[in-house]
Design goal:
Largest sheet: 8 strands, parallel, barrel
Structural class: alpha/beta
Helix content: 40-55%
Number of helices: 11
Bound molecules: SN-glycerol-3-phosphate
């Protein structure tokens, strides 16, 4: 399973990259705004900075919601760096745009997916990634993990190559559960990834090893 970091924060991207387990980055307009990155030029430059840090795919989201606008923006984003994947919302216009980008050889990430039917459309349009938002479903008392499992089943039924990119991950156990279900990719905040490292028995065991070593070697 690939690990993407879900942030536009350069320090956190560098920190995750340094861990040696990072496969890519996802961003969205909210994450860009959180970092105070505004204006088309600054946003594009920020994507270029992100692409210098990592070696995997970087999702860059279009702002336009009409077909022509998405095509224009998507082409501009894709031209910034070969690592860029154009992130397109799950709408009729978005699916048409994904089909267009697929034909042009431009990689896409279909975002804001909340149902199996939407994921099926994304796969039929040839999306590189589909992003079901599991945390936001959990927020409205709907089982987000079940959606990932159902998309896995449908994609496997037809051998769709679209990768399931589990998004809106809120905590470490979401990552583990996505791995059990067979998500191809998770995108998570750094804190959720770092949680995977932790176990009190690891800390206790290491303390004991060092104490025993020091008893005989000091
Ligand atoms: O990748 C999508 C993600 O950024 C949404 O996360 O926590 O805002 O639901 P969240």
């Amino acid at each position: 399973m690939k690990f993407f970091i879900d942030t536009a924060n350069l320090s956190q991207i560098k920190e995750a990259e340094a861990l040696g387990i990072l496969d890519g980055v996802t961003t969205n307009p909210s994450l860009m705004a959180k970092e105070g990155i505004t204006g088309e030029k600054n946003i594009k430059n920020h994507y270029k900075e992100i692409c210098k840090i990592v070696t995997g795919h970087v999702s860059a989201e279009v702002i336009a919601t009409d077909y022509e606008g998405m095509i224009r923006e998507g082409k501009e984003l894709a031209a910034l760096d070969p690592l860029i994947v154009v992130k397109v919302p799950m709408t009729k216009e978005g699916i048409k745009a994904i089909k267009y980008f697929t034909k042009q050889g431009i990689k896409t990430n279909c975002t804001l997916v909340f149902s199996v039917g939407q994921a099926l459309l994304a796969a039929k349009a040839g999306a590189t990634y589909v992003s079901p938002f599991l945390g936001r479903l959990d927020d409205v008392a709907t089982d987000g993990l079940n959606l990932i499992a159902e998309i896995r089943l449908v994609y496997d039924n037809y051998n769709y190559q679209t990768q399931i990119l589990a998004a809106s991950i809120r905590h470490t156990m979401h990552i583990v559960d996505c791995a059990k279900i067979g998500a191809d990719v998770i995108t998570a905040p750094l804190s959720a990834m770092e949680g995977l490292f932790n176990h009190p028995l690891t800390d206790l065991g290491l303390k004991k090893f060092l104490e025993d070593y020091n008893k005989l070697n000091s």
